Every structure is written in structure tokens, then in C-alpha cells.
Amino acid sequence: MGDAYWNNASASSSSSLNSSSHDTDDDHMIAAMLAEDERMRYDGRLGKRLSHLQSIPHTPRVIGSIPDANDATLDHGRLAQRVDTYGLAEMRIEGDGNCQFRALSDQLFQKQDYHKYVRKEVIKQLKRHRKLYESYVPMKYRHYVRKMKRMGEWGDHVTLQAAADRFEAKICLVTSFRDTCFIEILPKDITPVRELWLSFWSEVHYNSLYQAGGKKFYLCQQYL
């Protein structure tokens, strides 16, 4: 992840209108893609294969302390070993501050390019269902939502819960944590229609996970 932010203040009004139009067209296209995906039955094949993994109860939270360089290196090695042990492959996600939303986009649409749409939908979820998430946010809620709306703002476990709820998805995290290798994030009060698999490294980066040897395994290998 990084601290890059998109600054469009210098753009002309006409280019802003064009950009807005393109964003709207993209939203319609993505919504259609998602609707088609929702018609497919949920089978959870990867989840069934890894059903032996024990998950801890998920509590939405904002980002915790960032590990120092030495701990982060150890954590990265631990995560890589787990990914290999579980027969998974990582699709490397760009570290521009949007990696959580990029990884979710890759899982939902097979492309990380739709991360702006994913962030937008998460923000809508946070706004529409404030009571579900407000108690997990240690600041004024409207400030938190405004902060999360910015491109380049790091996602946290509150936005992951909102994503699970919005996309009716079970989000499966393979983590680098010493005492917790696997976290499941379930949508509230609904049965998930899809599984999204992410790797989570030391509070600082998310990648997208696929089954090693599966149809996207070759693409994952190209990014190693």
C-alpha cells in the first residue's frame, strides 16, 4: 500500500463531466456483471477443500499498529509459507493504497481495475447502514466515512465487513498473524452467494488468492 492520493482539482469542468459519464457507464456495466454472477449457484469449492482451517470470530476494527521492518519481513515469510502449504497462489495487487479494494475487485470481476466501483459500493453500504458499523469506529463516523471515500485510503476490517454485507460474500483471509492463520468474514443476516479469498500481510497489504493449478494459476505465476 502507499499514500498516493488522486488529485483532480486541476481538471477542467468538461473533462470532469466526461470522467463522470465514464464512471457511470462503468458502474452500469459492473452492476450487470455482478447481477449475472449472482445468478450462478454458490459452490464454495475452494472453501470446501480448506474446510479444515479453523477461523476465529471476526470483529470489525480499524487498522491497528503497523509492524516494524523486521517483524514485517518475518510476517511475509510466514504468509508465503501458509499460502504454499494450503495449495494457493497469490495474484499480486498494486500497492497504491487501494489494495484491499483492488483485491476484492479481482475476486469479484477477475480484474483489479474496478476498485473504484468496489470502494464506492462499500461507502454506500457504510452510509446506508450506519448502525451496523458505527460502534466499531473510534472517531466521528461521518469523518471516518469521508476518509474512506478518498482514493488511496487504506481499507480496514470495517470496510471488509461492509464489503461482505454489500456483495453477499464470505470473505476468507489467509493472514500473516502469528496466532491466527485464517479469518472468515460473513455477511450479516444473509447466506453468502460467493466466496472471496484474500491474503493479508501485516496490516499493510492485501493480495488476491486462487487455487494453485486452477484456471488463474498461470496468471498468478506471471506476477511472481
Describe this structure in words.
This protein has 9 helices and 5 strands. By secondary structure, it is of the alpha+beta class. It has 2 domains: 11-40; 42-222, Cathepsin B, Chain A (Alpha-Beta Complex), CATH 3.90.70. Strands 1-5-4-2-3 form a 5-stranded mixed beta sheet. Strand 4 (194-201) and strand 5 form a beta hairpin. It is globular and about 40 Å long. The protein starts with 12 loop residues before the first helix and ends with a helix.
Question: What characteristics describe this protein?
Answer:
single chain, 224 residues, alpha+beta, Cathepsin B, Chain A, five-stranded mixed β-sheet
Topology (elements, then pairings):
Blueprint: H1 13-38, H2 45-49, H3 69-85, E1 88-91, H4 99-109, H5 115-128, H6 130-133, H7 141-149, H8 157-166, E2 169-175, E3 182-185, E4 194-201, E5 205-211, H9 217-222
Parallel strand pairs: 2-4
Antiparallel strand pairs: 1-5, 2-3, 4-5
Helix pairs in contact: 4-5, 5-8
Figure out the total of helices.
9
Encode the helix/strand succession as letters.
HHHEHHHHHEEEEH
Taking strands numbered 1, 2, ... along the chain, how are they ordered across the largest sheet?
1-5-4-2-3
Overall mean pLDDT: 80
CATH class identity of the largest domain: Alpha Beta
Give the total of beta strands.
5
Task: Report a brief summary of the structure.
This protein has 224 residues and is an alpha+beta fold. The chain has nine helices and five strands. InterPro entries: OTU_dom (IPR003323), Papain-like_cys_pep_sf (IPR038765), Peptidase_C85-like (IPR050704).
